[in-house]
């Protein structure tokens, strides 16, 4: 997380900033503040320690070069979008997956498997990427990850158009590509830049952009199909959908490869290497290995103290994303229109539902920028999070359709198209707000020396919420069909 504290920030050393957040990114609300800087690498040093480290390495006092034409900003904006592009593409292509898996054992639970596989693998890969992060290899690792992203969409485009690849085989290949996609997101998220605002903005727009594209392609495929056959329309839609994603990944990768030639990037990359040299030098100055133990112990104690003090914020973020991922898209995307008429709304009901959720999510992430609408106290934030529990019975007792061979056993109590779409928007709005406001509020209440640790803890609980939510979605499926959800 990134916060203003410019009076305490040492202007002589500026680090490349961690562009880290999960599937439903929580820091978009801070993306418009160009002074938000991460001090994770040196925020825990005292003034004397920082002076000592500055004396060991000569750091020039030159000003950064200009970002001519905003190329660096654009490059990191594209990188941010690439981070969450794959996840949004896989979950939004719900109707296509249902068609490809018709008659297989994954026909009803493919949404749950997609969520669980991606979130658990992303959490695992993210942890490994952070533990093994080396500033000298970040550019290379990110370039390789983006290139793998291109191969993923080539693979997805290929298998999606092969009529003989269906059912279990298709889903097995899809999950394999999804695991690679989670690795891509984890590696890119462990990279960073001074232009964190551009990266976060790109993450926030990824879901909205994908849902808009899917909506447009769904209409185009239906109108340009030689017949009204739904199968032909879905195949054309998927071809346009995955082709557009592939083209975007090629553009994002090419732009990132050109980053190393930008003077602004060279400037900040040099600063990071200087900071690494400072840290390596200070490590060599440790007189005895026994001195390391108290530092590690103190860091662990600090973490537990922060958890004990700020657990309401952590609970709110975690619980909010448990609710979100347990219902969206695994349950909400299985609710078709109540109308039997072939109207525009009924044809594209699922696509409209994705679009409204992502519009609400993006707005929710940006609302805390407005001071009058920014809630910082944990009591109202926790209350809003707990009130989101009401979405569970609403969506479960709705017009759920899992497939012709799996009728739902829960009664349709709340089925109404207008109410459903309005509440999906509210669901996205509260998801975005609770993914931003607590992440901003908690670290703003501690000193500079604890901001980095608390921000990392908040991000950890957010990731745990995403993973647990995807697992809980299997429980909702079991309740809906009164069957084995696996």
Give the secondary structure arrangement, pairings included.
Elements: H1 47-56, H2 71-92, H3 94-100, H4 110-131, H5 138-161, H6 167-189, H7 196-224, H8 230-257, H9 263-284, H10 292-327, H11 344-347, H12 349-366, H13 378-387, H14 391-396, H15 417-434, H16 437-441, H17 448-481
Helix pairs in contact: 2-6, 2-7, 2-8, 4-6, 4-17, 5-6, 5-8, 7-8, 7-12, 10-13, 10-15, 10-17, 12-15
Transmembrane segments: 71-93, 113-132, 144-163, 169-188, 200-220, 240-261, 310-332, 344-363, 375-397, 417-436, 457-479
Family: Belongs to the SLC29A/ENT transporter (TC 2.A.57) family.
GO cellular component, one term: plasma membrane
Concise account of the structure shown:
The chain has helices spanning 47-56, 71-92, 94-100, 110-131, 138-161, 167-189, 196-224, 230-257, 263-284, 292-327, 344-347, 349-366, 378-387, 391-396, 417-434, 437-441, 448-481. With 486 residues, it is mainly α.
Keywords:
about 475 residues; mainly alpha; Growth Hormone, Chain: A; 2 domains; 17 helices; about 65% helix
């Amino acid at each position: 997380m990134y916060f203003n504290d410019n009076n305490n920030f040492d202007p002589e050393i500026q680090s490349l900033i961690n562009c880290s957040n999960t599937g439903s990114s929580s820091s978009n609300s801070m993306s418009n503040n160009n002074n938000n800087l991460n001090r994770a690498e040196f925020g825990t040093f005292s003034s004397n320690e920082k002076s000592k480290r500055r004396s060991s390495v000569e750091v020039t006092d030159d000003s950064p070069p200009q970002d001519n034409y905003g190329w660096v900003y654009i490059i990191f904006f594209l990188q941010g979008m690439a981070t969450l592009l794959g996840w949004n593409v896989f979950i939004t292509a719900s109707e296509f997956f249902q068609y490809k898996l018709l008659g297989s054992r994954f026909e009803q639970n493919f949404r749950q498997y997609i969520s669980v596989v991606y979130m658990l693998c992303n959490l695992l890969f993210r942890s490994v990427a952070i533990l093994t992060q080396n500033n000298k290899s970040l550019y290379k690792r990110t370039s390789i990850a983006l290139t793998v992203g291109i191969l993923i969409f080539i693979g997805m485009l290929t298998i999606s158009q092969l009529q003989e690849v269906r059912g279990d085989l298709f889903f097995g290949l899809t999950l394999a590509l999804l695991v690679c996609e989670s690795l891509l997101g984890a590696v890119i998220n462990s990279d960073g830049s001074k232009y964190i605002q551009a990266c976060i903005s790109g993450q926030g727009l990824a879901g909205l952009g994908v849902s808009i594209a899917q909506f447009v392609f769904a209409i185009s495929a239906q109108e340009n199909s030689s017949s009204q056959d739904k199968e032909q329309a879905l195949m054309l839609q998927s071809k346009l959908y995955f082709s557009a994603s592939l083209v975007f990944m090629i553009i994002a990768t090419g732009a990132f490869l050109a980053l190393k030639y930008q003077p602004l990037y060279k400037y900040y990359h040099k600063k990071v290497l200087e900071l690494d040299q400072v840290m390596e030098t200070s490590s060599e100055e440790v007189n005895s290995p026994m001195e390391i133990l108290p530092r590690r112990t103190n860091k662990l104690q600090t973490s537990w103290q922060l958890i004990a003090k700020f657990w309401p914020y952590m609970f709110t973020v975690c619980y909010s994303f448990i609710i979100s991922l347990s219902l969206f898209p695994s349950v909400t995307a299985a609710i078709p229109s109540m109308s039997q008429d072939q109207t525009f709304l009924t044809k594209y009901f699922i696509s409209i539902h994705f679009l409204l959720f992502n519009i609400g999510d993006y707005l929710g992430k940006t609302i805390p920028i407005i001071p009058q609408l920014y809630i910082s106290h944990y009591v109202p934030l926790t209350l809003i999070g707990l009130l989101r529990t009401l979405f569970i019975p609403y969506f479960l007792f709705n017009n759920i359709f899992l497939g012709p061979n799996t009728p739902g056993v829960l009664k349709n109590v709340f089925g109404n198209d207008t109410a459903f779409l309005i509440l999906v928007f509210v669901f996205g709005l509260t998801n975005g707000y609770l993914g931003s406001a607590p992440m901003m509020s908690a670290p703003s209440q501690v000193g500079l020396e604890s901001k980095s640790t608390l921000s990392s803890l908040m991000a950890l609980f957010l990731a745990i919420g995403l993973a647990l939510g995807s697992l809980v979605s299997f429980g909702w499926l079991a309740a809906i069909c009164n069957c084995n959800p696996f």
